[in-house]
Design goal:
heterodimer; A: alpha/beta; six-stranded mixed sheet; four-stranded antiparallel sheet; about 25% strand; globular; B: mainly alpha; 2 domains; two-stranded antiparallel ribbon; about 65% helix
Chain lengths: ~280, ~270
């Protein structure tokens, strides 16, 4: 079953001068056609200003299309009567965890979404425990949100989405403000959710090494989808990626060069261990 | 330095006062403040003192924490005492050159000092025993009758709790901007008051820009989590009255009635 269907999506933004008058328009998304299936882990890459975040906001009905349609489980984001239902289905975590936490205590923040959906307190209590356990932060339930680390804050915001029982998780550069270890731990947890709970994950990232977790990679450039392939095939198209401002890390770059020189790699050599194993 | 500032002074302790519903505590504080200002004689003050002592004992918060709030009041207290003692006309009991202390002035000064001190201690007990989020919950539920007049009480309460949540973040932001400006040669301590105020402009502009950006992001985050105004919401910890809350309401009713009764007691010692 298809989760998300995007048909000829176009989003234009008004450019205003200092007096607030519209002077021109900027096309942020230009004719996107995509479909994302249930349970898929999709990684979206692209340089700054390529339209990734605008695309993510379109999925959540935070930005409505200028032209075209966005269908979430068959519901059109343009249909205002369906907005709450769409947002219930598709949870979103943003780049800066500080700007998305509403409450001062972890459990109160996780409950925020459920309170909006009028869920009773007993169910909320149960779901808070479940979502905290899922992300391995059960001991943080009564902690003060401002005292948490970046990684912990991001996990709290994801727990808030999980507690709403969203079946699609959109993560807009969630790891950009987290150190390397925190980044790995967070994405590992998200991957587990994708595998165990069959949650569709759309991960928008700057870090190309995160594509190794994905089933599919989509590259955005100037508001258009320029590449849509499996992670293995994407890494083998290093020069094309560089054209879109994405640099391959050393090992996939080496693998790509070996492949270009006639060494028949399988295409999944993302790290030293895998590459060594193949070369042996 | 700036991070040392603390907002909200909740003191965690397992006490009867802590366990009371925040609405009861808000009403109790309000009744106590009203009682202070309608007290006309010494019996009323004795009753208020008795009420305050019982609250202090029951809340189990160390006394030095409770009176910490008085420090900031010292200046105001001093001004009110001095002005009342020297500038109230009446029966002169002491004369210092052009200034004279009157009996009436002395009585008013003592009365004002007691009122101010009790007022600060009373409201400190409220904030020391109630978390900011419980306080906003209490206000939201307690003032929900205002919805009839189309006053968005729930929205105002949410705004208050978000403001409280963002205070530490904005303090951190100020700290960061200050350090960035200092590293580029700014000096926030130099010069007179006007120069100091002027030096704050390069601090406030980026702070406001960042606060608006944060507000925009937060609005997106709240909307994406199905928030919509004018829509009924449930609560994770809904406020419900317990037996102790009803008992406290009865005690408060008895207290305010007694205070009113004292207004009719005629006393000759000092007509406070």
């Amino acid at each position: 079953m298809q989760n998300i269907q995007i048909k000829n999506l176009i989003v234009d933004f008004d450019i205003m001068n200092s007096e607030g008058a519209v002077t021109s328009q900027k096309r942020a998304l230009d004719g996107i056609n995509l479909s994302i299936n249930e349970g898929e882990f999709v990684c979206i890459l692209g340089r700054n200003g390529s339209g990734k975040s605008t695309f993510a906001k379109c999925l959540n009905a935070l930005i409505l299309p200028t032209f075209g349609d966005v269908l979430i489980n068959g519901m059109n984001t343009k249909d205002e009567t369906k907005t709450i239902e769409i947002r219930k289905n598709i949870g979103m975590a943003f780049q800066n965890p500080d700007n998305q936490i509403v409450a001062s205590i972890v459990e109160e923040d996780i409950a925020f979404g459920m309170e909006n959906l009028c869920i009773d307190s007993e169910t909320m209590d149960k779901r808070i425990n479940e979502s905290l356990e899922c992300l391995g932060i059960k001991d943080l339930r009564y902690s003060v949100t401002s005292k948490l680390s970046g990684g912990q804050k991001q996990k709290v915001s994801i727990a808030g989405i999980l507690s709403m029982k969203s079946k699609i998780l959109v993560l807009d550069e969630p790891t950009s403000m987290i150190d390397k270890n925190g980044r790995k731990d967070l994405i590992d947890r998200v991957k587990r959710l994708n595998k165990d709970e069959k949650i569709t994950v759309i991960l928008i990232s700057h870090y190309i090494d995160e594509i190794s977790y994905a089933d599919r990679v989509i590259v955005f450039n100037n508001g258009k989808v320029t590449m849509d392939d499996t992670p293995n095939n994407i890494t083998l198209r290093g020069s094309e990626l560089e054209k879109y401002g994405i640099m391959l890390p050393y090992i996939p770059k080496l693998a790509s060069a070996l492949k270009a020189n006639g060494i028949n790699l399988k295409g999944n050599e993302f790290n030293v261990k895998e590459l060594c194993q193949f070369l042996k | 330095m700036i991070r040392d500032i603390t907002f909200g002074q909740y003191y965690k302790k397992d006490s009867v006062i802590h366990s009371l519903d925040p609405r009861v505590k808000l009403v109790a504080t309000l009744i106590f403040l009203i009682s202070l200002f309608i007290s006309t004689n010494i019996f009323a003050y004795i009753l208020a003192t008795f009420f305050l002592i019982i609250s202090i004992v029951l809340c189990k918060v160390p006394f030095q924490y409770i009176i910490r709030g008085l420090k900031s009041l010292l200046f105001l207290l001093l001004i009110s005492i001095v002005f009342n003692i020297f500038l109230t006309p009446g029966e002169k009991i002491l004369i210092f050159g052009p200034l004279s202390v009157t009996k009436e002035g002395l009585v008013i000064a003592i009365k004002m000092a007691i009122r101010l001190i009790y007022l600060v201690i009373g409201s400190s007990i409220l904030t020391l025993t109630t978390t900011p989020s419980k306080l906003t919950d209490g206000l939201e539920k307690g003032l929900s009758f205002l919805n009839v007049f189309k006053i968005p009480v729930a929205e105002i309460a949410l705004m208050m709790s978000i403001a409280l949540r963002f205070i530490p973040i904005l303090i951190e932001e100020v700290d960061k901007i200050m350090k960035a400006q200092i590293s580029r040669g700014a000096d926030f301590d130099k010069g007179n008051l006007i120069e100091k105020a002027k030096s704050l402009v390069p601090l406030l502009v980026p702070l406001f820009v960042s606060a608006f950006r944060r507000a925009n992001d937060l609005a997106y985050a709240m909307e994406s989590r199905c928030y919509s105004n004018n829509v009924k919401r449930t609560k994770l910890r809904p406020l419900t009255y317990k037996r102790i809350d009803y008992i406290t309401y009865i005690i408060l009713l008895v207290f305010i009635v007694l205070i009113f009764i004292t207004r009719y007691i005629k006393i000759d010692i000092i007509a406070l």
